[in-house]
Design brief:
heterodimer, A: about 80% helix, B: alpha/beta, 5-stranded mixed beta barrel
């Protein structure tokens, strides 16, 4: 998922929360929104984990070598 | 007698050279003067004299040891950093140049900067739509001075905001002759790390934010960030670039070209890395609100359902009661309408009765009139049909009397 789509997920989640808070929905719609919102939440939370990773502190030649190596594969 | 051994001149010159070079005052001197006899050689070395009105000294720029700015010629005023040396082969005292800058260089650079900005504006690069930063980077690439204080600050800050956030630092030279080339190459690394196949092969998410910059310094130190190659690299980057050069007051071409301008390197980190705790709290808040909202919806629906059930349960008896009330209302209406109809008729009857009373013959008789009745009991209303000698009965109000008809006088009828 790209960043744009991630932002979209969060925006959609916000919209669903607002809709549920506003009220006046029937049971079926409530269930649908709740299910969709739960999935979006899970997605957002799992995306957080994707941001975790190593710190690579490289000098330019090392960084270039790393990229060159990756290009060969 | 002791003989004084003559010193071979070469040895003398070598010793003199050693003495000269061992004196720190002769090392890395900053000199100002005018260029004369500027001679670049095919070998790559350049020889000239640095002079002013009070003296002069030979100078040499060894090939590859110092970048030679374009456009230097005789008569040019320059600043030189160099060390004193003696060229033994010719016994010539000279300055070995480590750095040379024309004195009006900054003014000329400033003009170049303005020309570049004009050019970039004409090409629409300055006014192009900017890329927005993601909510948080999944792979941040920082192109900055290797082992610099600015880098240390950025790493410390980013780890405190979002511990363990994935970062690749590309340490480059940010000032001097090689700065532009290295910054451009550093940005190229970032662009490569954005490529799906390269990121995949390195088993990392593609680079999605780039910070390029350095800490504070003199205008000359920062100048690489004013140059065209760096500006174009930033503009061509497929992911958002934050330019973070020097201090708040330093505004460079890279700042004007980048997607986001940060006033300092630390500010750049604040721009693109949110506080992870805030972020988690926000998601938790969304979850809570969604739960609450849904529960309220369910409760609302349940309440509506309960109300409906209740109404349904009550419906039959409620229907009967309603029917009874309806009937009662109808009954009342009927009675009321009947009564009023009766009253109406009674009144009418009374009126009629009075009218009848008034027109009763008896009432007429009471006023002194008499009514003649023939022997068949019929009221005599005309002289016609009467005959002489006929007996009629005269009805009075209080009795009757028989009378004989003597004369009959019929009035002529008017036509």
């Amino acid at each position: 998922m790209t960043e744009e789509r991630y932002s979209d997920a969060l925006r959609r989640l916000e919209a669903i929360v607002a809709e549920l808070e506003r009220g006046g929905m029937d049971l079926e719609a409530t269930l649908e929104r709740f299910e969709e919102g739960s999935k979006l939440l899970q997605r957002c939370q799992s995306e957080l984990k994707e941001a975790e990773g190593r710190l690579e502190n490289l000098r330019l030649p090392e960084a270039e070598a790393m990229v060159d190596e990756a290009k060969k594969e | 007698m002791d003989e004084i051994e003559p010193t071979p001149v070469g040895k003398f010159v070598q010793a003199l050279r050693a003495r000269l070079r061992s004196d720190d005052r002769n090392q890395h001197c900053l000199l100002k003067g005018e260029i004369s006899q500027w001679k670049p050689y095919a070998s790559g070395h350049t020889y000239f004299s640095l002079r002013d009105d009070n003296g002069q000294i030979s100078a040499v720029i060894w090939k590859g040891r110092c970048r030679v700015p374009d456009g230097i010629k005789d008569g040019q005023e320059v600043l030189v950093i160099g060390s004193v040396d003696l060229y033994p082969a010719r016994g010539q005292l000279q300055i070995v140049v480590e750095r040379i800058e024309p004195i009006q260089r900054i003014g000329a650079l400033e003009q170049q900067k303005q020309e570049l900005l004009t050019q970039l504006r004409q090409e629409g690069i300055l006014d192009r739509p900017r890329k927005t930063l993601p909510l948080f980077p999944k792979h941040l690439v920082i192109v900055t001075g290797k082992d610099s204080a600015a880098l240390a600050d950025m790493l410390q800050l980013s780890q405190s905001r979002w511990p363990g956030i994935r970062t690749t630092v590309v340490g480059v030279t940010v000032q001097g002759d090689r700065a532009v080339q290295e910054i451009v190459r550093g940005l190229a690394v970032a662009r490569n790390l954005h490529r799906q196949e390269i990121a995949q092969s390195l088993n990392v998410p593609p680079c999605d934010v780039v910070i390029v910059g350095r800490g504070g310094g003199s205008p000359e130190d920062l100048w690489a960030f004013n140059l065209e190659a760096v500006a174009r690299s930033i503009a061509a980057m497929p992911v958002p670039v934050i330019s973070a050069v020097g201090h708040e007051s330093d505004i460079l071409v890279s700042d004007l070209v980048a997607d986001v301008r940060a006033s300092t390197p630390s500010h750049a980190v604040e721009c693109c890395i949110p506080l992870v705790d805030d972020y988690l709290a926000y998601l938790t808040d969304c979850e809570d609100r969604m739960m609450q909202g849904s529960l309220r919806q369910f409760n609302d629906t349940r309440q509506k359902l309960q109300q409906l059930t209740l109404r349904l349960q009550l419906a039959p008896s409620k229907g009967l009661a309603q029917a009874v009330r309806h009937l009662e209302r109808l009954g009342n209406d009927l009675q009321q309408k009947t009564t009023s109809a009766l009253q109406h008729h009674q009144q009418r009857l009374a009126v009629l009765g009075q009218a009848l009373h008034i027109s009763h013959p008896k009432r007429v008789l009471e006023r002194g009139y008499m009514m003649g009745i023939d022997n068949k009991g019929k009221v005599i209303s005309s002289v016609r049909g009467l005959s002489q000698g006929q007996t009629v009965s005269l009805q009075f109000v209080d009795g009757e009397a028989d009378a004989n008809i003597d004369n009959i006088r019929q009035r002529e009828e008017k036509t």
